[in-house]
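pinned: reference chain
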Amino acid sequence: MRHMLVFLIVGLVVVASLGCITKTPSENITLRIGYQPSTHQIAEMVAMEKGWWLEDLRPFGVTAVEEYEFPSGPPEMQAMLAGSLDVAYVGTAPPISAIAGGLDAKIVAGVNTNGSALVLAPDKEYKGPESLKGMSIATFPPGSIQDTVLKKWLKENGIDPSEVKILPMGPGDAVTAMFAGQVDGSLLPEPSPSVIEMANRGRVAVYSGEMWPNHACCSLVVSGKLIREHPELVEQIVKTHIKATEYVHAHPDEAARIYANRTKQDLSVVEYSMEHWDGRWISDPHLQIPSTMEYARVNYELKYISRMPSEEELFDVSFYDKAWGE
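pinned: its structure tokens
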């Protein structure tokens, strides 16, 4: 983990309304949430800044919420495997490898679709996938969304991924490499492509939604332990995520300011990113199932996983279905 933002608020809850008293939970749960500094996961940041995580989850025994920031999905899943996270906002591909490798967790909600872009240096001409042969492209580590999308797209266009120099990097390192002219291009989630474009260090050649239409990107993953021991809490986590996602859609300007303040990113870049990206914020996990299973197939072919996990191993949509139905 490179950074940890800890928001700790302790409170005793005694709720009385019209003569009915809600029992104060006997447990003091510290909920540990992992996320990445991307506008894809802006719903998590909105829920934290608005105080909703603690406010909504306190009746279920949560007395503290801790946030942990990760540069990409693979190290975030390593932390979850180590038992350091209860909840993760993460690209949908890394949980596939982790769950296939023994992680006790489920995808319980969607977070976003599409939302990344291939950016090439100003002196590099793009005339289709063939243009990338011999180029150096910075992207997230093997098993990530961006790595999987890129390699799938290259293979579908008759290009062996080995013909492209694919360099695994976190977003900060990849943007720095673009600025320094050390790589020819990058495939990154927003707002990194917009950061590069607005600094005139590159231009978008193709969006990830063009490479793989309507592909799943980030998802909400919850540990199996939390699901088994605190199912009502998990349902409320999903409800709060739905509320935050709807709030982002209704108040994009405020969401952009929240993101900019938390990440110290220039607000104009964040607004440009949210206006021009090809992504969509969602909460419905059903929308992600088909492409998630395709990620599993591709990752199996790439030998990132030794077996194909089933849909039932990867998803538990019951919490979303119940939350949405109420």
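why pinned: The longest strand covers residues 62-69. The two ends are 37 Å apart (CA to CA).
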